[in-house]
Amino acid sequence: MKAMVYHGPGRRSWEEVPDPVIGAATDAIVRVDAVTICGTDLHILKGDVPEVTDGRILGHEAVGTVVSVGDAVQTLSVGDRVLVSCITACGRCRYCRDGMYGQCLGGGGWILGHLIDGTQAELVRVPFADTSTHKVPAGVSDEQMVMLADILPTSYEVGVRNGAVAPGDTVVIVGAGPIGLAAILTARLYSPSHIVVVDLADSRLEAARRFGADVTVNATKQSPSTVVKELTGGLGADVVMEAVGVPQTFEQCVELVRPGGHVANIGVHGAPATLHLEDIWIKNLTITTGLVDTYSTPTLIELVASARIDTAPMITHRFTLDEFEDAYDIFAAAAETGALKVLLTAAK
């Protein structure tokens, strides 16, 4: 088969590799029908995730068709359409029993495209298949479903839920990439009074308005702090979400939140960020971070299936699997290309 293989910082290749095989009785092999690229993959290619070694197949988001299952797999059959979750869960360890699948001690967690070969390939081996996949409901497209592998549960759990968004809140989201847009979609479920989005690219701020932001700020042209203070009578935002993953935006989030408010860090950071405790200790802030657990994926699937959330508009560029190199180039240059999420599908 062919797969997108990491060969060290800045080096990747769509190349021939051996087909995956069942390695444990709980495995399934899934034919990849639709797959996307995550901002975390770009962090890996920059060298920000040193655990990813030369030769690793990238990717942790896909929708596909089951082609074989191990003897212990009980809920899947050959031919089932499934969402492959970005988080793998053994289902038995302490953390899995608490719904904290991202911290799985039994061989799961974030392993696809990280510690084992991932989904940017024609076939993928999925460990613990019963607890690491979700069947695709009738009437839900691959395009809609693949957005539920990572960005929707990540934004919802690490941003909206951890940030404790409540009705009437002023919510600020710093970063209008796919994670920021997913945070808009899922924050709206809680009826905040305002959703403010801060970014540097007008194209992404326009997308934020389409997804439901009522205030947008280009930080190269306006002061986000001034805008938020004017909107809140000088208080600051109730909840601020960091959806970029660089030190400057984290520090900006701490500046924008009100005393007693909440900073929810969603972004993946590749460098240290300074926490100015000498200034903020007196503000009674709550600051949370987190790796997605995907406990919310069944709920989000129901919301998509019932048309309460539409994820398909996130996809702006479409390719076949053999165009993976082009897809990476387009996605990495999002400020110039306007790319939000790219979708790659198997040739029919």
UniProtKB/TrEMBL annotation:
Domain of life, per UniProt, equals Bacteria
Write out the coiled-coil annotation as residue ranges: none
Matching PROSITE patterns: ADH_ZINC
Question: Gene3D superfamilies, per this entry?
Answer: Medium-chain alcohol dehydrogenases, catalytic domain (3.90.180.10), NAD(P)-binding Rossmann-like Domain (3.40.50.720)
Keyword Metal-binding in the entry? The reply is yes
> Where are the membrane-spanning stretches?
none
Q: Which GO-annotated molecular functions does the record name?
A: oxidoreductase activity; zinc ion binding
Q: Which cofactor does it need?
A: Zn(2+)
Which Pfam families does this chain map to?
ADH_N, ADH_zinc_N
Keyword annotations from UniProtKB, A to Z: Metal-binding, Oxidoreductase, Zinc
| Family (UniProt) | Belongs to the zinc-containing alcohol dehydrogenase family.
Q: What is this protein called?
A: Alcohol dehydrogenase
Question: Which organism is the protein's source?
Answer: Mycolicibacterium duvalii
